[in-house]
Amino acid sequence: MDELGRLVDFKQGLLTNGTLDTGALTTQHQWRLDELGNWREHRGDPADSFLTANLDLVNAYTDWPVPFDDDGDGTPDVLARSYDAVRGVLYHRGEIGGGESTYVHDPFGRLSRVQWDTDGDGTLDVDLEYGYTAGSRLAWRTDHLTGRTVKYVHWSGQIILEI
To answer: What is the pLDDT of residue 36?
Structure first.
């Protein structure tokens, strides 16, 4: 964390006697912030250089360079992201491995469907639809690949049961 409490360094690994064993890290990320305090550059390994994302007019990520070369052309690939310009919600995202995710939102801005092709082969690997109560609580989720629908029971503002 920096002096204002913003995440700029993240490490995950083995704890030994309550202390992180830096020789056994499983994940590490670092971010540099722009003048407004937004994450601007990222690297997943201290040996890598920082990669810079592109932002649109409302400060949403439009694409993010990633440290892999999925298509084998010798240059790092870019994961594209598309947002609704009015509501600011994510509706399309490129995925590592060449796949794509699509996010559909209802007129109230609530997530209503997620479709994900993880490997870019044109076949959906995830196809979930969400429904809500009149009070905007999550009421059900349908997995269109399995045909299974889960209904949610709420109590005191929290989901207490999945049926």
So the answer is: 74
Q: Which helix (H) or strand (E) holds 93?
A: strand 90-94
Task: Tell me, letter by letter, the H, E, C secondary structure of 96-122.
Answer: CCCCEEEEEECCCCCEEEEEEECCCCC
Q: What share of the chain is helix, strand, coil (3-state, %, to 5)?
A: 0, 55, 45
- Sort strands 9-16 and 19-33 into parallel, antiparallel or unpaired: antiparallel
pLDDT at residue number 65: 60
Tokens of 76: 């790092």
Contacts of 33 (CB under 8 A, 6+ apart): 2, 6, 8, 39, 40
- Closest-CA residue to 98 (of 75, 127, 69): 69
Which one has a higher pLDDT value, 102 or 41?
102
Rounded to 5°, the CA angle 20-24-26 comes to 95
Tokens coding 111: 């997530």
Extract the tokens encoding 160: 């207490």
